[in-house]
Specification:
30% of the residues lie in helices and 24% in strands. It has nine helices and 15 strands. The chain folds into two domains: 195 residues, Fructose-1,6-Bisphosphatase, subunit A, domain 1 (Fructose-1,6-Bisphosphatase, Chain A, domain 1), CATH 3.30.540; 122 residues, D-Maltodextrin-Binding Protein, domain 2. The protein has an eight-stranded mixed sheet, with helices on both faces. The chain starts with a helix and ends with a helix. By secondary structure, the chain is α+β, with helices and mostly antiparallel strands. One manganese (II) ion binds next to loops. Pfam families: FBPase, FBPase_C.
Length: 328
């Protein structure tokens, strides 16, 4: 069995000029994920469920205790490590610059949704973490800058997610390689390679959408939903609906079984809900790397030129043929 650390080091050996920084950074993210996993596993008995004192984040959402706990864990681990020049998080208004001599030397910055699926925390349903890694464009040796973060998705160097589900998984991909999935063996505290070279099926039989919004999406999206749901002579509908209220869980299913995930714009949210920089872009990167596609309805997600670290965009993402059908 290959561990996550062994795997990243093995990949490194393919590139004699590589410095090992990326594998160091992934090791840090993996460590923080294991720390979050420990908390998530005992959340109901450790008094870490529910709201975090009524705090509201920059998104206008009520912050849950687990949102804050996950956020602080990732920030602390990356700050005390040596491979990350700075971070953007869903839970922080501004970028966090790790301005110290060791981190200023790092060529990478990280954008992160520390805890995805906050509404699932209190009910023991799947939650996740999403991250995106860029090479900085600013000068090494100095503190990182806004420009390092505000790069379009096509510039991502690596991305990944952690799923705290019925088992905990770490899935990541890099520009040079395919997408690989690792499963946590809780008894030894190691992630082991369980899903090598993940390829998203070209087509699928499920779609993921919250029907509460059926009435407020535009006519074209509604038409596609009707197509998904269509039934002839009272037979079963064309596709099954699967919706976990957690983008990581919904997409993990799609990576393995195929399907399409949709969070369109609607009347009350003209740009949709999901955040371009730490939800849509990393998932689009992994999706394209594994053979699927991701669009905002007009263009590829990763072509969008970002203007703000917290900007939102509509997203339709998943199996190539299903996204093609939607576009049609
Ligand atoms: P987060 O918990 O990081 O704020 O994101 C939750 C996201 C995503 O995981 C899920 O698909 C979507 O929000 C659900 O949105 P609604 O608020 O519309 O239910
Ligand atoms: Mn949130
Ligand atoms: Mn999220
Ligand atoms: Mn979140």
């Amino acid at each position: 069995m290959i561990t996550l650390d062994e795997f990243t080091i093995e990949q490194l050996r393919l590139y004699p000029q590589a410095t090992g920084e990326l594998s160091g950074l992934l090791r840090g993210i993996g460590l923080a994920a294991k720390m979050v996993n420990v908390q998530v596993n005992k959340a109901a008995i450790a008094d870490i469920l529910g709201e975090d004192g009524g705090a509201i984040n920059v998104q206008g959402e009520t912050v849950q205790k687990l949102d804050s706990l996950a956020n602080n864990t990732f920030i602390n681990v990356l700050r005390h490590g040596i491979h990350c020049a700075g971070m953007v998080s869903e839970e922080n208004d501004d970028m966090i610059v790790f301005d110290d001599p060791k981190n200023n030397q790092s060529k990478y910055v990280v954008l992160m949704d520390p805890l995805d699926g906050s509404s699932n925390t209190d009910v023991n349903m799947p939650i996740g973490t999403i991250f995106s890694i860029y090479r900085r464009v600013s000068e090494l040796g100095k503190p990182c800058t806004k420009e390092d973060f505000l790069q379009k998705g096509d510039n991502q160097f690596a991305a990944g997610y952690v799923l705290y589900g019925s088992s905990t998984m770490f899935v990541y991909g890099t520009r040079r390689h395919s997408v690989n999935g690792f499963t946590l063996d809780n008894s030894v505290g190691e992630f082991y390679l369980s899903n090598p070279n993940m390829k998203m099926p070209e087509d699928g039989t499920t779609y993921s959408f919250d029907y509460r919004y059926y009435h407020c999406v535009n006519d074209k999206v509604r038409k596609f939903l009707d197509f998904c749901n269509e039934s002839k002579n009272g037979e079963d509908g064309r596709y099954g609906n699967r919706h976990a209220s957690c983008m990581v869980a919904d997409l993990h299913r799609i990576f393995l079984k195929g399907g399409i995930f949709m969070y369109p714009s609607r009347k009350q949210k003209p740009n949709g809900k999901l955040r371009l920089m730490y939800e849509c872009n990393p998932m689009a990167f992994l999706t394209e790397l594994s053979g699927g596609s991701a669009t905002d309805g007009g263009k590829r997600i990763m072509e969008i030129e970002p203007k703000d670290i917290h900007e939102r965009c509509p997203i339709f993402i998943g199996s190539k043929k299903m996204v093609e059908k939607l576009e049609e």
